[in-house]
């Protein structure tokens, strides 16, 4: 809570008016009003007397021993996302760092803010060099969260750090962090939680709970299949890689994932094989599915999951990021001289501005 809010709230709790505060401290009532609005701050020599008057200590007055609760964290992060959306990632990043300086030991907030920046950065079309610059800051934030957070926050932060270290090739650091994480509990309380909700007549809540877990499980299996396909290719078993990719596509269809998800594994296999024709065909299908997607909550398995109101905007940003990666990414260099590929890029860039 900022200083102006502390003064205002503690004054009201003490049953004092702004005029009474002013009289006690020998200042004007408008000066106290400005303190509470945050436009000015009390002189440092007045702080001890002000703290005594408000029946708090200096640490509380200056917010040294307070941390934002979960609701405040949510509000701060929403404000940061609004700034990123309206003014760009750089402005949102600077605001985040400013807020973290206010709460440098609040592990939960720092981890939440780092994850927010992590996700927002992926949805920008900045160059890989720019992303690398911000990634180093985000890694530092996860390290800070792991240092000051509670047990759960430390686990989450260490997992994200391991993921970042893996991506930048520092596998030893990643392994050390993963070794700190506990094995997944054999007891899953979610089915029991859903059963309790059902007995209470809260079937919609139970349905949403189970559907989100199902979606998470299917997406995890999809990721595992992509990794297995990649291993098969590295071991020289290209036919096995293709068959695994085909199973991934069938899984996505069977469990009512977005059409976009059915192309993920086959496309990765085509890219690894540098198969120009297959890559272009799959890219065309994947990008087309982003333009005309089905709604997840219209499917049989996920009807209790509400979709964000800005889903269309998210898909548009995702397509912009994908097109930028296709043009600049090294893994797509085998496509860059192909005329059909160039036409595909132009086609979907035009679709973005309509």
From TrEMBL:
It comes from the Bacteria. SMART domains: HTH_XRE (SM00530). Keywords: DNA-binding. Residues 7-61 form the HTH cro/C1-type domain. One of its GO terms (molecular function) is DNA binding. This is DNA-binding XRE family transcriptional regulator.
């Amino acid at each position: 809570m900022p200083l102006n809010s502390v003064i205002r709230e503690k004054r009201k709790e003490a049953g004092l008016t702004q005029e009474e505060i002013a009289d006690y401290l020998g200042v004007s009532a408008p000066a106290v009003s400005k303190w509470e609005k945050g436009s000015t701050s009390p002189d440092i020599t007045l702080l001890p007397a002000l703290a005594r008057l408000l029946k708090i200590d200096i640490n509380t007055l200056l917010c040294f021993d307070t941390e934002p609760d979960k609701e405040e964290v949510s509000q701060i992060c929403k404000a940061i996302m609004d700034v990123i959306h309206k003014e760009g990632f750089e402005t949102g990043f600077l605001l985040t760092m400013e807020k973290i300086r206010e709460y440098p030991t609040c592990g939960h907030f720092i981890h939440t803010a780092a994850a927010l920046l992590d996700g927002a950065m992926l949805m920008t079309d900045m160059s890989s060099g720019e992303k690398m610059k911000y990634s180093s800051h985000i890694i530092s934030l996860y390290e800070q969260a792991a240092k000051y957070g509670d047990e759960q926050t430390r686990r989450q932060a260490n997992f994200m750090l391991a993921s970042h270290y893996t991506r930048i090739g520092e596998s030893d650091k990643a392994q050390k962090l993963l070794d700190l994480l506990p094995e997944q509990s054999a007891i899953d309380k979610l089915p029991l939680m859903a059963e309790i909700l059902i007995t209470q007549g809260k079937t919609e809540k139970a349905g949403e709970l189970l559907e989100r877990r199902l979606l998470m499980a299917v997406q995890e299996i999809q990721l595992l299949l992509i990794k297995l396909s990649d291993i098969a290719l590295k071991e020289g078993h290209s036919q096995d890689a293709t068959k695994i990719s085909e199973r991934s596509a069938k899984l996505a269809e069977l469990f009512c994932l977005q059409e976009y998800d059915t192309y993920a594994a086959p496309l990765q296999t085509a890219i690894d094989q540098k198969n120009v024709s297959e890559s272009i065909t799959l890219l065309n299908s994947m990008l087309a599915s982003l333009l005309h997607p089905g709604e997840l909550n219209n499917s049989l398995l996920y009807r209790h999951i509400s979709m964000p109101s800005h889903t269309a905007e998210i898909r548009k940003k995702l397509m912009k990021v994908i097109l930028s990666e296709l043009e600049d990414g090294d893994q797509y260099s085998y496509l860059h001289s192909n005329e059909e590929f160039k036409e595909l890029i132009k086609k979907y860039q035009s679709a973005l501005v309509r």
